[in-house]
Automatic annotation (TrEMBL):
Ranges of compositional bias, category Basic and acidic residues: 57-66
Keyword check for Coiled coil: no
Annotated protein name in UniProt: CLUMA_CG015073, isoform A
Keyword vocabulary terms for this entry: TPR repeat
SMART domains listed in its UniProt record: TPR (SM00028)
TPR repeats: 783-816
Region ranges (Disordered): 34-86
Pfam families: TPR_8
Biased composition range(s): Acidic residues: 34-56
Gene Ontology biological process: transcription by RNA polymerase III
């Protein structure tokens, strides 16, 4: 409701620039209520009132002839408060004024309005998510009716005020006479005063039709928007269609459909345009929305479109959408559904778990009947069932499934008898396999077996899937011997993974270990290996302590993620080019599981002295992409395996890899020394020499053992002088007792040479270094010191002194040595050397006594 305030003032009290806001009158006119702010007069302006010099492009003013009355009173009409519409007219008016004054672009106008380019149709079945599809359809129709009534009530054509009606007529007359500029200015003035009417936009669109196509299109859309009617939108859509603008025509037909949702022709026209655009998504959505508005008398068209929508949604796996589409048609014309259509509807209802509604379809179309009493929200009580003898086989099966899903347990016996009576197992047994599956889900295994027993005995349907369900039922009923035989039938027919695992578990439970192993055994020559079966077999072999087989199967497990190219890059032997193929299942062991299995395999190989298998396992794990996070530990284990398996070549290559990353740890150098001790390869000397070229000797953190290697190599090569120089430098730097002892032995070796000079001085040097060894060695190693000193004197030929040291060494009593005899006791070595001295002196009795007293085998 719009109200106005009428105010009379004297013209002498008003500034000249504000007089245009007033109307000069003698009598205050009574005028009709208007919807927009504007100028009202009691007379229509004549054609002479509008001349070229009286109209400005930016600000239009209406000139009125002065009244013949002498009264100098004027009336100011002020607009007061008004109730807003659904979308505030003031906001729309301001946006339209800004657009027409080029203050904002058309895109900004559309974005702020947020409605003109909306392609979506009226949403169907999106609300009331808890309602059933049929209830949604009923509510949907009511909502459309309400929306349509409200829409037509709110979107009535907006009339121009009387003064502006004349101005609009003048604009149309000017355009008809060819005065386009004046017509344009008059339309702009009308829009300035009354922007929410369609007439000036339509006239402007005609003005721009042949000159500015973009403005023409924009003005047509604005005209349709401010006067949203089916006729207006359809008219604009036809214009766009003629010009080949299919997308804009589709938008306009969507708007027209919103004005009158029940107009089927509008929807069909829009669908044709969307098909030409290739917009399959919107074609499907609009066809789905259209189903609710197709009348019953067009039932063939309704069902045909519904089936097409069902098919398209079913391709995308949208079962609920497919069902809603089918129910839209079924709720209107159930009597026109063919048998095939009924089958499709029942399938969709079962997939959507709407079993109760499915029973209603059966009752309507097949003649079956059953008394249903609801006992809870989702629970029912069934009685007095009647199933016609002529019911189709497929429908009979699905009807039984619905009743089973609804837990009609008191009817199970009757249903099974009915199925066995009317369905021939030998010819139609595959039709009712879903029934025992439904029973098994309810743990009704005894009833399920009644249907499965005839199937497994049938020559036609004695299939792996049937045997598997048969075996599962027997296992659930704890009839294990029978279940084992059924699972064996499954394995013979299909090598089913779960069946083999279950069969092995049952055989193991029954104590039939060999049969369990046979069930888990796979032939890599004829089948792709299943990781789960191989893992279970490994665990069973370990439990049975069958070491060699356990290591062999574990080796296969390590190979499943092995990369041959990676092994070649790491200079590893590739002796399994034809490695078995593995399937990629969902229950793949985790990396932690693989790592724990590898550690157990390593420990088993180590404790059972299977060094060859230990090396192969290590090399397989090195190339495993799954175990690359543990590659450092695996490399170390592989090096140890090479050492014990006497594969010095691979061990030497592995230890060099450690040196490239960490050369400061003594254990790597100890391993290196152990490896080169067993090999005749002299490459290690060149490697150490290159290493010395990269670092400054005796100044880095490299341990003394590194420098000992060079000296040892010279000693083993009989280059005593070079070895002497190296050992002497090492002793001066590190003062180690071991180096002092080696120097003493080295001087003794040189003194014993045939052509050596100054032997006496060399012996003195040997004794001197041995004394240093005795001084720097720990007192707890007294027996070792005496033994090594005696060996030195024994070597240089001073037998009497050597004898004294050996005897002193035998007399040493050390509790710590007694506690660790297997590692520290030198009694046998000392006694043997002492007996050699007595034997050389001819005292065989004493030599024999020494052996009897100290060497026990």
């Amino acid at each position: 409701m719009t109200s106005f305030i009428i105010e009379e003032v004297d013209t002498s009290d008003i500034p000249e620039n504000e007089l245009s806001e007033f109307v000069e009158t003698t009598d205050i006119p009574i005028v009709a209520e208007t919807q927009e702010e504007g100028m009202l007069t009691d007379e229509m302006p004549s054609e002479n009132d509008f001349s070229d010099d009286s109209v400005d492009d930016k600000d239009f003013k209406l000139k009125d002839e002065p009244s013949t009355s002498n009264s100098n009173k004027v009336t100011k009409i002020l607009k007061s408060t008004r109730k807003p519409s659904v979308i505030p007219d003031k906001s729309q008016s301001n946006l339209l004024r800004k657009f027409m004054n080029n203050e904002i672009s058309y895109n900004d106008y559309v974005r702020k309005m947020g409605t003109l380019d909306d392609l979506d149709d009226i949403s169907d079945l999106s609300e009331d998510s808890n309602d059933s599809p049929m209830e949604k359809i009923k509510k949907h129709g009511k909502r459309h009716a309400a929306k349509a009534e409200t829409h037509h009530a709110k979107k009535t054509k907006r009339a121009l005020p009387p003064a502006l009606q004349g101005l609009m007529g003048q604009a149309n007359l000017c355009f008809a006479r060819g005065d386009v500029a004046l017509a344009e200015k008059l339309c702009l003035e009308i829009i300035r005063q009354e922007p929410m009417t369609a007439e000036p936009y339509l006239t402007l669109s005609q003005i721009y039709e042949n000159t500015e196509e973009e403005k023409y299109n924009q003005l047509l859309l604005i005209a349709a928007h401010v006067n949203s009617t089916v006729f207006q939108w359809s008219q604009v859509a036809e214009i766009f269609l003629e010009k080949g603008n299919l997308k804009q025509a589709s938008i306009c037909y969507a708007k027209a459909t919103r004005c009158d949702p029940k107009d089927l022709s509008l929807r069909i026209k829009r669908l044709e345009i969307l098909k030409r655009l290739g917009d399959e998504k919107h074609v499907l959505h609009c066809t789905f929305c259209m189903l609710g508005f197709i009348p019953k008398d067009q039932h063939e068209f309704l069902i045909e479109r519904a089936k097409w929508v069902v098919q398209e949604y079913h391709k995308d796996g949208q079962i609920t959408k497919s069902l809603d589409a089918m129910l839209k048609a079924y709720s209107k014309v159930p009597e026109h559904f063919s048998t095939q259509d009924v089958h499709s509807l029942i399938d969709l209802l079962i997939k959507d778990k709407q079993y109760r509604k499915c029973l209603n379809v059966f009752i309507f179309h097949t003649g079956m009947n059953v008394s249903i009493k609801q006992t809870g929200k989702n629970s029912y009580e069934f009685s007095n069932i009647y199933i016609p003898d002529n019911m189709l086989m497929d429908l009979r099966t699905k009807m039984c499934i619905c009743l089973i899903k609804l837990e009609a347990s008191n009817l199970f016996e009757y249903l099974i008898d009915n199925v066995l009576k009317f369905i021939d197992v030998d010819n139609e047994g595959d039709c009712y396999l879903d029934i025992p599956e439904a029973l098994m889900l309810l743990e009704q295994y005894t009833f399920a077996l009644r249907l499965l027993n005839p199937l497994v005995q049938s020559e036609t349907f004695s299939l792996a899937a049937v045997w598997l369900r048969h075996a599962d039922c027997l296992r659930a009923l704890k009839r294990y011997p029978e279940a084992i035989e059924s699972y064996k039938s499954v394995v013979q027919l299909s090598k089913h993974l779960e069946a083999r695992l279950t069969l092995a578990a049952l055989l193991k439970q029954e104590g039939r270990m060999e049969e369990a192993l046979e069930a888990l055994t796979q032939d890599p020559a004829v089948e792709v290996l299943e990781t789960e079966l191989l893992k279970e077999k490994c665990l069973l072999l370990k439990e049975l302590n069958r070491v060699d087989e356990y290591l062999q199967e574990g080796y296969k497990m390590m190979l499943r993620s092995s990369d041959c190219d990676l092994r070649k890059n790491r200079n590893q032997e590739v002796d399994d080019i034809d490695a078995p193929q593995f399937s990629k299942g969902d229950n793949e062991p985790t990396v932690a599981d693989d790592w724990n299995l590898f550690l157990d395999l390593v420990n088993t190989a180590w404790t059972n002295i299977r060094y060859v298998q230990l090396q192969r396992l290590s090399f397989a794990a090195m190339s495993s992409r799954r175990l690359q996070s543990h590659i450092r530990e695996i490399d170390f284990i592989g090096t140890i395996a090479c050492l014990y398996n006497k594969e010095e070549t691979y061990g030497y290559n592995k230890i060099r890899e450690f040196f490239n990353t960490d050369r400061e740890k003594p254990r790597f150098w100890i391993l290196f020394n152990l490896i080169i001790y067993h090999t005749q390869d002299s490459r290690f000397n060149r490697f150490v020499m290159r290493l010395f070229e990269k670092v400054s000797p005796f100044t880095t953190k490299v341990p003394p053992i590194v420098y000992m290697l060079l000296a040892n190599y010279c000693l083993l090569s009989n280059s005593y002088k070079h070895a002497l120089n190296h050992y002497d430098e090492i002793y001066r730097r590190f003062q180690q007792p071991l180096v002092a002892m080696i120097l003493a032995i080295l001087y003794a070796l040189i003194a014993n040479q045939k052509h050596s000079n100054r032997k006496q001085n060399l012996i003195v040097q040997a004794i001197n270094y041995m004394e240093r060894y005795k001084q720097t060695r720990e007192p707890e190693a007294e027996a070792e010191i005496l033994y090594n000193t005696g060996r030195l004197y024994h070597q240089i030929g001073i037998i009497s002194v050597a004898k004294q040291y050996y005897e002193k060494a035998l007399a040493v009593k050390n509790p710590f040595i007694e506690k660790h005899k297997e590692l520290l006791d030198l009694r046998m070595e000392i006694a043997y050397n002492l007996h050699v001295i007595y034997k050389q002196c001819g005292n065989r009795a004493m030599a024999r006594k020494i052996l009897y007293d100290n060497i026990v085998i």
